[in-house]
Amino acid sequence: MAALVLAQPAFAHEQVAVGGGLVRGLLHPLTGMDHLIAMVAVGIWGAQLGAPAIWVLPITFPMVMAVGGVLGVLRIPLPVPEVVIALSALVLGAAVAMRLRLPFAAAAVVVAVFAVFHGHAHGAELPGSANPLAYGVGFVVATGLLHLCGIMIGTLTRWPAGERLIQGLGVVIAALGCYFLAQSLGAAA
User: Fold this and answer.
1) What integer is the mean pLDDT of 157-162?
2) Model pTM greater than 0.90?
3) What pLDDT is attached to residue 107?
C-alpha cells in the first residue's frame, strides 16, 4: 500500500515534456540577447509614451507573439525572420533613444509586426521534445516579465537624469540591434 501511495504517476514522458517545455520557454527569452533587449525596449517605449501605451504595448506583444509562434510551429514561412528580429532591436532602441512619439495605433502596429516575427522564429525552433503549449506559456510569461522590467526602467523618465540614462540605454539597444542585423545579413549572404 505504501509503495502505491509513494509511487510517481505514470506520466513520465508528459511530465518531462511539460516541465522541459515550460522551463525552456521561461529561460529562452532571458538567454537570447536579441529577444531580451527588444522586450525591455517595448516596456521602456510604452512607459515613455504613457497611458494607454504603457500597458497596451506590453500586452499586445506577447499576444501577437503567440500567434507568430503558432505560425512557426506549423512551419508557415515568413520572409527573413532573423533580419526582422534584429531590426526590432534597432528600431525599438532608436524609438527609445529618440523618445519617438508615434500615435498610439502606429506604435501598436510596429510592436505587433515585430512580435509576429519573434514568435515565429521561436515557434519554428521549438525543441521537438518540448510540449509546445507549455513552452509557449513559459515564453509568453518570461516575455511579459521582461516588458515589466522595461516599464520599471521607463519610470526613470520622471527625472531629467533618468531620461538621459534611458536615452543612452536606447542607443545601446539600437547599437546591439545593428550588430545583430550585421550578423543576420552576413549569415544570409
Assistant:
1) 85
2) no
3) 95
